[in-house]
Every structure is written in C-alpha cells, then in structure tokens.
Amino acid sequence: MTRARLPQWTEAEVHRLKMFADGKVSADTIAKSLGRSVKSVLKKASWLGLILSRKVTARQRGNDRDATTALS
Questions:
Q1: Are the C-beta atoms of residues 18 and 48 closer than 8 Å to each other?
Q2: Of residues 58 and 12, which shows the higher confidence score?
Q3: CA–CA dist 52, 33 (Å, integer)
Q4: CA 19, CA 25: separation in Å to the nearest integer?
Q5: Mean pLDDT over residues 35-64, rounded?
C-alpha cells in the first residue's frame, strides 16, 4: 500500500505563512486561508523557525481578565 503524497509548499505559500506569523495570526486562521490543515501549518512553521500565536477563545480571555483583576 502506498501513501498519498501531500502537496508541496509553494514559495508563495511560505511567503504568506511568514507574513501571517509576523502579523501574529493564529495557526487556525492561517490554515483556513491557505487551505491546509492546522497540523501542516504548525509543522511548516516549526521547520522554518517561526512562532505562531495561539488562538484565544472567549473563555480564555475571561480567565485572563480574572487573573488581571486579582493582581490589581
């Protein structure tokens, strides 16, 4: 049994990934924009030495707000 080959990253996609990373765009948003999986985006970013921002949910924002209030 042979595995299906995954599509190669084009230079344009790599460039967009770098631009998104500089703009602190989440991996989820980048994946949707590029039509790739989040796992693929994270692996490529890691291979390129890029740091992607995490997607912040409303629940996490609420927890951060509570922590900030507690410190005040």
A1: yes
A2: 12
A3: 14
A4: 9
A5: 80
